[in-house]
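Trying the structure run again after the queue cleared.
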Amino acid sequence: MPPTADGLTVDEALTDSIDGIRVGRPHLSASVAFVPWQKWTLVVVTVLVVAGLVLATTATLTALAGIATFSYVATIIDRIVLFRRGLAGGPIRVSDETALALADDDLPNYTVLVPAYDEPEVVGGLVAAMESLRYPREKLQVLLLLEEDDEATITAAADVISSGAVTVLLVPAAQPRTKPKACNFGLHFATGDIVTIYDAEDVPDPLQLRRVAVAFTELDDDVACVQARLDFHNSGDNVLTAWFTADYGLWFGFLLPGLMASRSPIPLGGTSNHLRRRVLDEIGAWDPFNVTEDADLGIRIAVHGMRTAVLDSTTWEEANIDAINWIRQRSRWYKGYLQTFLVHMRTPVSVMRTLGPVGTFRLATLFAGTPLIACLNVAFWFMLIVWILGQPTEITEILPPAIYYPSLVSMILGNAATVYMTLIAIREDDRPELFWPALIVPFYWVLMGIAAVKGTWQLLRNPSYWEKTAHGIGSSTTQPAAAPSPVAET
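Done. C-alpha cells:
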C-alpha cells in the first residue's frame, strides 16, 4: 500500500472516506434518506391522498391528474428549451492540434481513479486504454481501486499490469460497498491537480486529458469540472443497446450542453468528469451513501457557485444488452436522483438563494421529475390504451373530460417531442442506424417506468444499496481505439 498523499494513515483515510460528508456536512449526506420534516411531510401527504381517494375519489383524482399534467408539460417544455440551446451551441471543442500544442511542461499533474469490483474480465482492456492516453507518464497517476477481498479482479490485475502505467490500490473492506467510497479512499493517495474517474470498461479518447487541460486554461476560474461525452461502442447489439445509445446521444450531446449554456446545475455522468482537486477538497468530494454520487457532486458544485462545462471528447462504454441488467442499473440511477433531490432540498431557501428560481426548478425537474415522469408515462400510456381498446365509461366518470383529454394530449405531444428531439440528435451525430429504434422508443420508456418504480420503492426500503451492473457481456468485440476528434478550437 503506497503512502497517502495527505499524511493520513490507511485507517484514517478509510474513516474519512466513509464519514467525511456526514461529519463535516451532515445535511449533505444521503446516509439518511429522509430527514424528520421530509419524512413527516411524506406521511401527511400520503394520508391526505388516501383519505381523499376514499372520501372524494373524483375530486382527488382530478386534482392529482391536473398536478401531474401541469408538471409533465412544464418539464417537457423546459427540455425542449434546453435541447434548442444545446443544438445551437453544443459542447466546447478543443482540436487535436490545440491539445498537442500545449507543452508537456505546462500540463498539470493528473490523477485517474478507476474503481472496479468483481470485474476481472475488463482489466486487460482497462490497462490498454490507460496506456493509450497521450499524456506524459511523469505527470499521470492511474489508480485502479480494488476491494481488498475481490481476489478475482486482484489476480487478473496482477497478470496484466506490468508497464507501471497503472497502480493497484486496495480499498479496505468496509460498508458501504459503493463506488464513491472507493473514490474517496483513492483521493487520499491522489497527487494530481486534476482528478477524473473512468469505469473499468471505459475507452476514452487518447487526447481527452490534454483537451481538458487546455479547456481549463481557456475557461473561467469558476469552472470546477469538465464533463466529457459518453457513448457506446456496441449500439448494434440489439434494440435495447440502440435505445440506450440514442438516449445518451440526446443527453450528453444536447441536453447537458443546453444546461451549460443556461448556467444551470449539471448532473455529472458516472465517468469522465474531470475535476479541479482543490474544488473536491473544498466541497467534500463524493458522498459514499449516494448511489449517483456523480450527479450529487454536480449539484454541490453549482450550490457552491461554480460551474461545469461539457467537452466534445468521447469516452466509449458498453451498453447493457440485457433488460434485467439494464433495469438494475437504471433503477439505481433513479434512486440516486431522488436521493440527491431530497438531500439538497433539506435547505430549500439556501438552495434557491444560490441557484435562483430557474436553477431550483431544473434541480426539481431533473432529479425528482426524471423518475416521476418515467412513472407518469406508463400511467398515461395505460390510460390511452384502455380508452382505445374499450372506451370504458368508468374513466370519464372518475376523470372529467377537462382533465382526462388534456392529460392524453399532453402525453402524446410530450412523447412526440421527445422522439423528435431524439431523431434530430441522431441526425446531428450521423447515427442513421439508430433511426428505426428511435421510432419505437416508447417501448424503452416502459422499461424506464419499471426501473423508476423499482428505484422509488428501493429508496424507501434500502436507499444506499448499490446494485452491481454486469459488464463484459456485450456481443460486440470491437472497441474503438479513440473517440472522433473535434476540429474546432476552443
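The radius of gyration is 23 Å. Worth checking whether this holds up in the mutant runs.
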